[in-house]
Amino acid sequence: MLDVDRLTTVIEDFNTIFIRLPSVRRLNFSALSVLHTLNRRGPLRLTDLLATEQLKQPALTSLVGKLEQDGLVQRRPDPADGRASLLSLTHTGQELVRSRHTNRVAKLTALVEQLSPDERAVLAGSIDVLHRLTALAEDTP
């Protein structure tokens, strides 16, 4: 039987290590989350970004302003509504996300290589299940 409490603890522990794997430019978790969301979902309005991030609007507005100043995010008019803006990654922001991913792949590969063949097979079998859990979470209000 699946021990969801233990699963939750293991995922929390893994996430703590996983988010720190890249040695490429360190940013806080909220900044990284915004960058990764914009990378995966494309240009978004600030109100749409509020739905995915666990921040209040003033904090997110401030964070986006900082990311703009750092040259990682840009605003442009929303063609569907001239009063609104769309947020997207700049080329520098895209490169940062890409380099962090590449660095994370290399470091995780080194860890995975330390697993036994049976452990690697179990891990490989879990990829689709974790993907499905992520999809279910995104579809749940």
Structure description:
Helices cover 66% and strands 11% of the residues. The mean pLDDT is 92. It has helices at 4-18, 29-41, 46-52, 57-69, 91-112, 117-139, and strands spanning 73-78, 81-89. The protein has a two-stranded antiparallel sheet. The protein has a single domain, classed as Winged helix-like DNA-binding domain superfamily/Winged helix DNA-binding domain (Arc Repressor Mutant, subunit A, Orthogonal Bundle). It is built from six helices and two strands.
Mean pLDDT: 92
CATH topology: Arc Repressor Mutant, subunit A
Helix content: 55-70%
Number of domains: 1
Which series of helices and strands comes N to C? HHHHEEHH
Distinct helical segment count = 6
Which strand order does the major sheet show?
Answer: 1-2
Rough outline: globular
CATH top level?
Mainly Alpha
Structural class, by secondary structure, is mainly alpha
Strand count: 2
CATH homology group: Winged helix-like DNA-binding domain superfamily/Winged helix DNA-binding domain
Q: What's the end-to-end separation, in Å?
A: 27 Å
Give a quick account of the main beta sheet: strands, pairing sense, barrel closure. 2 strands, antiparallel
Radius of gyration: 18 Å
